[in-house]
Amino acid sequence: METRILKGRPIAAEIREEVSVRSTALRDRGIVPTLSIVQIGDDPASEIYSSSIQKAGDKRGVNVVLSRLSGESSAAQVAGLIAVLGADPSVHGIIALKPLPHGISSDVLEGIPPAKDVDGATVRNLGLLVTGRPAYAPCTAQAVVEMLVRSGIEISSRHVVIVGRSPVVGRPLANMLLRKADNANATVTVCHTRTRDLSTHTRTADILVAAMGVPEAIRGDMLADGVVIVDVGVNRIDDASSERGYRVVGDVAFDEALGVAAAITPVPGGVGTLTTSLLLLNTVDAAMRTDTKAS
Fold it and tell me: Quick one: pLDDT at residue 237?
């Protein structure tokens, strides 16, 4: 069997073009879609991520504003900033970059209004997902659905096995796929690293989503012929033959899946390439919803 490689970059480009079209339409009506990034401290990875979001926003007509607080800030100061941004009608989306400094709980993010929680970080948005109501999902979970849908892969009535139960991928994704809606209506099984005899579950999957964070844990003999695999894992493993001394792999043994799976996402180059584009798309969507309410 020839395995189709589901690359993320063409789909990310498609989403970015949608962002440009919608942001232009909003700007023509005097609305500038605006995303506010709350960054606490100077974590190097957060610096890189916020810069990449700003550059992507500049190219697509989304105003990305960085609101920076000292790493010594208190939870009350963070909550106060979020409250100000939440009440500002010119701000349509809010994200707070992690990791949060020691002593500041993620509970502080609950001050983000659900309508502005464009990365699905709050308990309230997760609750909306669980009850089947419209809500923003974490962008990585959303990227899995977009990858499948935009690749023309049928989800309805298929058996999806998700390996991973995190609140940013496994749990929200399961609820997204269970919805009585277009691009959903799947039968979903959620497994994790403590699941007994994991392979008995993975071999029943029509669609397998690997999001456990364990390098190449899913081997070729754990797969059913013709399965579609979305690999969310991003793991570094030592590799003396690489100039960097390591290489990045997913949660699925990619080479072993070739010839068995009908389709698979690569790592890197798969769902991870969609997340920033979806963050901007959600921001534009939030701005359009605000415009609709105002009119």
Answer: 92
